[in-house]
TrEMBL record:
PROSITE patterns: ROK. InterPro entries: ATPase_NBD, ROK, ROK_cs. It comes from Streptomyces galilaeus. Pfam families: ROK. Belongs to the ROK (NagC/XylR) family. Gene3D superfamilies: 3.30.420.40. This is ROK family protein. Coiled coil: none annotated. PANTHER family: N-ACETYLMANNOSAMINE KINASE, ROK (REPRESSOR, ORF, KINASE) FAMILY. It comes from the Bacteria.
Length: 317
């Protein structure tokens, strides 16, 4: 049992979660607020301060040695700022400085949410024991993170591993990011559903047009639903193979809502991967579902805080 603790924040467009986490990754204290995503930046920050206030009210707070933040992106860890796409009031918002001020100058480590989930999967989940891994979150968007040489590789700004914006279709649809044919534009949940609807899939009487509904239709054998997942799988396979060829990973972990689709995603993904990952050093690449629960963002933010300080160590981070 480690005596040192770290605080963790997981900041998204829906909720702001906080925790005190020990060196074994156990969450000892929790706090949460809804994200006032459409309000001004100061209002969003007040919600963060309320979460920190709840944590600080715990008798364990005094043992917290650092604070890790996993935030929806883009983030800029070098500048300490965040500009989450779905929180318009925060653009180049000086989150690290504000959190330091609110916590009495605790050391703060900022990473993107994809990197945070990667840290959690590497510490305690499906990538445990792998020194070179890619972890992906496939849901409303497609994000990710890398572990290279046994260490989390966030990159200078905290965005390394952002596989959703690798282009896999040179003449593909324009992506909101400004490029064309990005993995996210083909493989994210809303894009899987959009493509199925455009090609003639009709939702059931409940009118559910989510990717989960398309997955259910694909499991029942609906050819358009199957084809939409196959196209998503192909895009993911191309992005994963490109990453593996570039940096030699031996496992790719897929989480997020779309990652929960099961065989309708993983079967065509593994087939497609064989078409793209052809060189000897990437042929044995494993593709597996994520294991961490909804706490992955918090556990990963804690892992980053534990790994950042020389005086604090986490087993296996």
């Amino acid at each position: 049992m480690h005596t040192d603790l770290v605080a963790a924040l997981d900041i998204g467009g829906t909720k702001i979660a906080g925790a005190l986490v020990d060196g074994d990754g156990a969450i000892l204290v929790r706090a949460q607020r809804p994200t006032p995503a459409q309000q001004d930046g100061g209002t969003v920050m007040r919600a963060v301060e309320e979460v920190l206030g709840d944590l600080a009210a715990s008798p364990l707070w005094g043992r917290a040695r650092a604070l890790g933040i996993g935030s929806a992106g883009p983030v800029d860890a070098s500048a300490g700022t965040v500009s989450p796409v779905n929180v318009p009031g925060w653009r180049d918002y000086p989150l690290v400085e504000r959190v330091r001020a609110a916590t009495g100058n605790l050391p703060v480590e900022l990473i993107g949410d994809g990197v945070a989930i990667t840290a959690a999967e590497h510490w305690q989940g499906a990538a445990r024991g792998h020194d070179n891994a890619l972890c992906m979150v496939v849901s409303t968007g497609v994000g990710g993170g890398l572990v290279l040489g046994g260490r989390l590789h966030p990159g200078p700004t905290g965005n390394a591993g952002h596989i959703g914006h690798i282009s896999v279709d040179l003449d593909g649809d324009p992506c909101p990011c400004g490029a064309r044919g990005c993995v996210e534009r083909i493989a994210s949940g809303p894009n899987i559903a959009r493509r199925a609807l455009e090609n003639g899939w009709l939702p059931g009487p409940d009118g559910d047009t989510s990717a989960a509904a398309v997955a259910a239709a694909a499991r029942a054998g609906h050819p358009v639903a199957v084809a939409s997942f196959e196209r998503a799988a192909q895009a993911l396979a191309a992005g994963i193979a490109a990453t593996a060829t570039l940096v030699e990973i031996d496992i790719a972990v897929i989480g997020g809502g779309v990652g929960k689709a099961g065989d309708v995603l993983f079967a065509p993904l593994r087939r497609s991967l064989a078409d793209y990952a052809t060189l000897s050093f990437v042929r044995n690449l494993a593709v597996v579902p994520a294991q961490m629960s909804t706490d992955a963002g918090l556990v990963g933010a804690a892992a980053a805080a534990l790994a950042s300080g020389p005086e604090v160590t986490a087993a296996g981070v």
